[in-house]
Structure formats: C-alpha cells, structure tokens
Amino acid sequence: MTTTSESRVPKLRVEDLEVTFDVGRGRKLHAVDGVSFHVDEGETLGLVGESGSGKSTTGMAVLRLAEPTSGRVYLGDTEVTGLRSRQLRPLRKRMQIVFQDPYSSLDPSMTIGQQLDEPLKVHTSLSKAERRARVDEALDTVKLSRRYTSRYPNEFSGGQRQRIAIARAMILDPELVVCDEPVSALDVSTQSQIVNLLLGIQEQSRTSFLFIAHDLAVVRLVSARTAVMYLGQLVETGPSARVYDAPAHPYTAALNSAIPIPDPDRQRTRDRIVLGGDQPSPLTPPSGCRFRTRCPFAMEVCAEEAPPQYPIDGGGYAACHLHTHGPQLRGASVLPLIHGDHLTTPLVSR
Amino acid sequence: MTSRPELQAEVLQPTGTLPDEVEAPANASTFLRRFRRNKVGVIALGVLVFLILVAVFAPWISPHEPNQGELSRALEGPSGEYWFGTDDLGRDVLSRLIHASRVSLLAAALATGVALLIGLPLGLISGYFGGWIDNVIMRFNDALMSFPALILAVVIVGLLGPSLTNAMLAIGIVYAPRIMRVVRGSALSVREEVYVLSAKATGCGAPRIIGRHVLPNILSPLVVQTTIMLGLAILSEAGLSFLGLGVQPPTASWGSILGRAFPYMSRTPTTVIVAGVTISVAVLAFNLLGDAFRDSLGRERRDQ
Fold first, then answer.
1. In this protein, which residues make up the domain named ABC transporter (chain A) (predicted)?
2. A173 backbone φψ class: left, alpha, beta (φ>0; ψ -120 to 50)
C-alpha cells in the first residue's frame, strides 16, 4: 500500500480538469480550476482541502457525476470525458464511489441484498445463484453477517451502512473507487473500523482509490500520496510522508498544524499556524496566487502571477512563489521559515 | 499543572466484527403499529371493508330482486318488507342500493385506475427528467386542470356517449393531473437523493432508476392520493349518474338511485336520504382512510 509508483501506467489520469457552475446572471463559479493529477494502479491518492475547496466536485467530475467543463479524465486507456451517457454506463462497472453520508446513500426501499445485487444485475449475466454467492462474499469482505441480506437500511447503524456502501462499490471489483469523505459522517470509534476495513481492502485488491477527506490524519493513514486543494486548485502534491513532515506550501503547513496531537502536553506547546480570515469566494478568486490573501508570506509577485508547480525535494510539486522568489526555498520545506525568527509579522501562535 | 481526578475510562478497541444488531422493526410493521393506533382510520377501513363485502355478496344478501318491482307498491315508505321503502317503479330500494355498491365501487376503481395509468408514468417522467419534457407535460397538465372537473367530464361523456365506462374514463382523464402533480413533486425531490446518484454511479439506466429507486420511494404520497381519489371518483360517478350521464337503466349506482328518487323527494324522502348517506359515508371513509395512511406513513420511511 505504501509502495511508491515506479514505472506503472496510471490507472486514473486527470488533465487540466475544470468544473464551472452557472450561478445565474451570467456569473460563473469555478469549483475546480485546472486540476491535474494521476493515481497509479493499486495506489491511494488522498485529496484534502477545506470545505469549498472543490475536492468533492473533483471526485464527482472524475466519475462524470458532475459534468466537467473542460479537461480530460482517463481511466486506464479509456477517456471518460467526452463519452455519451449511453457509452458511459458500461464504464461504470470499472469505477465506483463511496459517498460521505451512509444515511442517504442507501435506498430506504430496498433490502441490503437487493442493493448489493443491483450492480451485478446491471453489469453481469450471472445466474441468480451466482449473484447470491457474490453478494454473500461481498458481505464477508466488509465483515457483515450474510443473514443481513433481507433487511432494510434503517435497521443498521451508520458504520454498518457505510460497510454496505463499500460492499456495493467493491462488488464488481472496480479499477477505481472514489471515496468521498467516507468517514466524516461517522463517530470516531466507527471511523477507525471503516479505515481499517479500507486498509484491508487496499491490501487485497488492485483497486486504485481517490480518497477525499478534510481529516488529514485519516488521509495520512490510508494514502501513499496526498494532493492538497485550495479554492479549486492543487497547491501541493507529493508522497504523504513528505507532504506532512516537510510541507512545501504554506497552506499545507497550516493544514498540518491543525491535526491534533494525541498528547496533551505536546499539543499545548506546539506551534500552530492560525490562518486569518475565510476562504475567499470562488466567484471572485484573488488574482495571482489564490492563497495570497491569507498567506503570511505573501509578496508582490503573488498578486501578479499565478505560481507554477515547482518540483519539491522528496517528491511532488508545490505551487508557491516562495520557491522561486523571496526566500528562494527551491523545493525545500517551508517549515524552517515558519519557525524562524526573521519574520516581521507574527505568524505562529504559541 | 493542577492535579485532576484521574479519569477512568475503558478504551474500546475497534474490532473487525460487529455484534449483531438488535432486531429492529421493519417498515411495514412500523406502519401497521401506527395505523392501528389511529381509531378513525381503523373505523374508516372497517366501513370500506363492509361496503366491499356487501358488493361482493350482493346477490346473496339482497332481500329482493333489484330490477323487479310491483308498480302497485311504488314510492312506499319504510316497512317490514321493504326496509328502505320502494322507488317509483315499486322496486326495493335496499336491494338496489346493495347491487349499486358493486357498480359504484367498481366505477370508482376504474376511474382511479385510468387516472393512475395516465398520471403515474407522466408524473414520473416529468419529475425525474425535468427540463423541457417537464415543461411540455406540465403545461398540458395546467391546461387540463384549469377546467372544472365535472364540466370536463360532461364534455367527454357528451363526445363518447353516455355509459358507465365512458363516464369513468372521463373522470379518470379529469383526475389524472392530480396524480401527475403529486407524483411529479415527489419524484422531483427523490431524484436529488444521494441513493439516486448512487444508482447512476452504479450504471443503472433511467428506466431502472425510475422503476426501482424513484417509484418505491414515492409510494407513500401516492397511496394517500389514490385513496382520497377513490372517494372523489365515487362522488363524481354519483354526480354524472345523477345527471343520467353515467350508468344506464335498469342498472343502478348510488348516484342514479339518488337522481331517480329526487323528483319524489317530498313524497318519500327515505330513498334520497339513504342513497345520500351511503355516498357520503363511502366518500368520507376513503378520505379518512387516506388521512390515516398519511399519518401512519408519517416520516416517509426515512427514520434513521
């Protein structure tokens, strides 16, 4: 699971994806604005960002559940974008999604057995007995009793429902599963069960995962690589360990410092970067670098030019002028800068 | 550091398997439990079951032949032999009412069936697809709804010729927009549900999504509307038959009995009263049953 990609063909390739919503009176909301990334076979890419960063829309657009305005999405060799809805349907066998809220993602009028059977009915020509066996197998995978097939969703707890949703997504052995904040709606003890379950599935299958979350601790646990989104754009990508331990973008550093440390003494004395203000409206994004309005290191150039993706030591990219202008980090972590004393503005709250 | 009382908490280890859940009540039994507590609903259901039984066993329970009378005994009041008196041809009113319940109930079912047949698919298509299809269907719907129901039915019967089947067809067409509205509205809200998106993500086509995911989840409002419509159809059938546009003699429906007895109301009011009360009770029972269904279905089976 933590194997880094070597020379494999990416399972999912997203190029310059844009999703624009018409919000009336000719105004357009750029929910996703020029996002490119890839996920290798059997790899899990974590996609993080605060609410409204466009991470969920990205996941939906990859599956064409939200319509991309421009850009390309490839699943293996197949281009997902540009397919007509009729051509798209057979492809759905190869890509699946687990939604955030297991209370609304299961049809209340169908038994668990029927919900798990549905993908098999739609995509395979298996006999009733064969499908039944696959349903039982799927329930085993998510560690639920086979006796549950005749029950309705309202008889289950949140965690159990999410297991059922995962079983439904995995039953056709898809190549890609988008997990759209699959644990955020669950309480913490249930979260760990679902995370453990996902880790087990990752080990056993060749499925690639796009794991969307705002909880960085969870993402760090499940994903080999992490991509960070802010206001519809990717600000940093890279191997998870590098992104968390040596962030190369100030926004990533700020997000990291929001992860609670499970040690009260360390938590109390740690350096925390507190961002001022709110995320600007995606209707009127700031010029140049979109993070500049909240960035403690904002320079003149940040308002003028959008920063290019700069290769970072230890893998990945960050879109920040700090690497080429000002302190000229040249691919190094921003952390020394944050903890340094040469700052004119107070940046770290102790 | 101030010293704090030591917290003792057992750390719960997340485990792979979960204990089996306590057997939770299924949807159907929740509905039954709620319905049984609704006294008005239970009584309404009892009345309707009684009426249906009367209709089914009409030939066996009616004391006289419904279409044969003694002219010499026309327009009599209630007596030991003729409980509800006789009509203008000397026929037994009770026997005619009993036989008429077959016609009236069947006619109501036919009209409601026609309304469902037209309204349900169009409402589902309109609500699920939206856009221009919705616009076209709904404008047509608005046009149909802008006519007073009974007038429109009279026009349709006028075009097709008076008969019970035509009358019920007319009433079905007239009431189809009501079904369509309810279905469309519910389908509109259901199509935004995540489980519909999930079905799309699974690769289900529109017919499957509509049939397997949308329809079952709009059943509660549909059942309520259908029940109330059955009462409404009885009323409309009675109206049309009263005017002579529905069932044709010698067959009787509650409405035609009422209509036939109306000119003699000052002499023998019994017939008018009995027929009127029967119609009212049946309509009221359907309406109250519809209300009871709505209350018992309650929170739309989305209890968490």
1. 12-256
2. left
Residue A288's nearest CA partner among A316, A319, A327, A311 is A319
| Amino acid at position A262, single letter | P
Which one-letter amino acid corresponds to residue A240?
S
Partner residues linked to A35 by β-bridges: A17
Q: Domain for residue A45, yes or no?
A: no
Contact at CB, A154 and B24, closer than 8 angstroms: yes
Q: Does B7 touch chain A (CB under 8 A)?
A: no
Q: How would DSSP label each residue in A195-251?
A: HHHHHHHHHH---EEEEEES-HHHHHHH-SEEEEEETTEEEEEEEHHHHHHS-SSHH
Nearby residues of B56 by Cβ (< 8 Å), 6 or more positions away: B102
Average pLDDT on B87-116 reads 88
Is the residue at A155 inside a domain?
yes
Interface predicted TM-score of the whole assembly (ipTM), two decimals: 0.86
| Segment-wise mean pLDDT, segments of 10 residues, chain A, 350 residues | 55 93 85 92 91 90 92 91 88 93 90 93 93 93 90 89 94 93 86 90 91 87 92 93 90 84 76 76 87 86 89 90 82 76 45
Q: Tell which of A155, A171, A187 closes a domain.
A: A171
CA distance B186 to B220: 10
> Does some domain include residue A121?
yes
Q: A121, A141, A171: which is the final residue of a domain?
A: A171
Q: Specify the number of domains making up chain A.
A: 2
User: Which of B18, B195, B219 minimises the CB distance to A107?
Assistant: B195
Please report, for chain B, the start and end positions of each structural domain, with discontinuous segments joined by +.
33-57+73-297
Contact B301 A108 (CB under 8 A): yes
Question: Which H or E run contains A28?
Answer: strand A28-40
Query: Per-residue confidence at B63, pLDDT binned at 50, 70, 90?
Result: confident
Chain A positions in Cβ-Cβ contact with residue B193 (cut-off 8 Å)? 104
**Structural domain harbouring A258:** 248-349
- pLDDT given for residue B9 in this prediction: 44
Q: Which CATH number fits domain B33-57+73-297: 1.10.3720.10, 3.40.50.300, 3.30.70.80, 3.30.565.10?
A: 1.10.3720.10
